Amino acid sequence: MSSTDYQMIRKAILTKTCMEAEYNGYMRQMCPQTLGISKKGEEQALFYQYAGESSKGLDVAGSPKNWRCMPVASLSGLRVIEGDWKGGPNHSQPQSCVSEVDVEAAY
Q1: What's the DSSP call for residue 39?
Q2: Is residue 91 included in any domain, yes or no?
Q3: With bands split at pLDDT 50, 70 and 90, how would you rate the model's confidence at 90?
Q4: pLDDT, tens digit (0-9, with 9 covering 90-100), for 50-79
């Protein structure tokens, strides 16, 4: 059984919708790209962060350094927001964040 946040992220991927959430004390605006289960058996998502804050800071728009892998349970205040859906230029490279992929954004 998947969590409510998992289902919200799943729908956002399928509809290419942006999201906002707090993670590690930082508010982030991001677009979910991949969702499933991590090697540890946790719900996990790969996001492209385009705005907000981060402990590492954000690089320029479109940078491959703005990919973020996050456990779904660690997100708080998750919500859908208005905005153009974004992804990084290197998403065609294999990701290792989610080991059992449930859904992935179509390009």
Answers
A1: T
A2: no
A3: low
A4: 999 998 888 888 788 899 999 999 999 999
